[in-house]
From TrEMBL:
The keyword ATP-binding does not apply. Signal peptide: none annotated. This is DUF2062 domain-containing protein. PANTHER family: SLL0298 PROTEIN. It comes from the Bacteria. Keywords: Membrane, Transmembrane, Transmembrane helix. The chain crosses the membrane at residues 47-71, 153-175. Residues 29-174 form the DUF2062 domain. Pfam families: DUF2062 (PF09835).
C-alpha cells in the first residue's frame, strides 16, 4: 500500500515539477511552497489534516475545489495528495445527490435544532414539481412540488463540511492503529525553506 502511494506521489510530483509549469512566474511562490517534502510525506497528522481539508472543500459548491484544498494544506500542514483525492467525493455523478442531501440536512438543522439560516440569503426560495427522484435505492425527493430554500442549502453545506472534517481526524487515527509504524512520521518536521 505504501509503495503504491509513494509511486503515485512521485509521478504526480514529477508531472507538476515540469519546466513548463515552473516557467510561469506568478505560480512560483505557490509551487515552491506546495512542493516542500513535508506536504507530500504520509504520516497520520498530515494525512488527517489533508483529509479534513479535502472533505470540507468537497462539500463546498464551488469550482476548483482541489486548488482550494491544496492551498488550505499549505496553511494547515496537510498532505496535499490526500486533500486533492478527498475532493473527488463530489464528482459529476455524486454532485446532485449530495447537494439534495445537504439541503435536507440544512432544513433538518433549522427545523429541529433551531439553528439560524444566513439572513442575507434565506429569503431566496424556488418551488418546482417533479417525479420521484431515487439514487441507488434511496428516495431523495418525493413526487409532487418541493420548495428549496437557499438558506437551508447554505446551512447544510457548511454544516456537512464541518461535520465531515471533524470526523476525518478520529477516522485517520483509528486506521493508523492498524499500520506497522502506527502512522508516525519517520523524520521530524523541519521549518519551511
Amino acid at each position: 500500500m505504501k509503495r503504491k502511494y509513494l509511486r503515485m506521489v512521485r509521478r504526480t510530483y514529477r508531472y507538476l515539477r515540469h519546466p513548463r509549469i515552473r516557467k510561469i512566474k506568478w505560480l512560483t511562490p505557490f509551487t515552491q511552497a506546495v512542493f516542500h517534502k513535508r506536504y507530500w510525506s504520509p504520516c497520520r497528522s498530515t494525512v488527517a489534516n489533508g483529509l479534513s481539508i479535502g472533505l470540507f472543500c468537497a462539500m463546498l459548491p464551488i469550482p476548483m475545489q482541489m486548488l482550494v484544498a491544496a492551498l488550505g494544506c499549505l496553511r494547515a500542514r496537510g498532505n496535499v495528495p490526500v486533500a486533492i483525492a478527498a475532493c473527488w467525493v463530489t464528482n459529476p455523478i455524486t454532485q446532485a445527490p449530495i447537494m439534495m442531501t445537504q439541503h435536507k440536512y440544512g432544513c433538518w438543522l433549522h427545523n429541529t435544532l433551531n439553528l439560524p439560516r444566513p439572513p442575507f440569503i434565506s429569503k431566496v426560495e424556488k418551488t418546482f414539481s417533479h417525479p420521484d427522484i431515487d439514487f441507488l435505492g434511496f428516495q431523495l425527493l418525493a413526487e409532487g412540488s418541493n420548495t428549496i430554500n437557499m438558506g437551508d442549502f447554505v446551512l447544510g453545506f457548511l454544516a456537512s463540511g464541518i461535520t465531515l472534517s471533524l470526523i476525518a481526524y478520529p477516522l485517520v487515527w483509528i486506521v493508523s492503529m492498524f499500520l506497522p509504524n502506527r502512522g508516525k512520521a519517520e523524520d521530524p518536521w523541519d521549518p519551511p525553506v
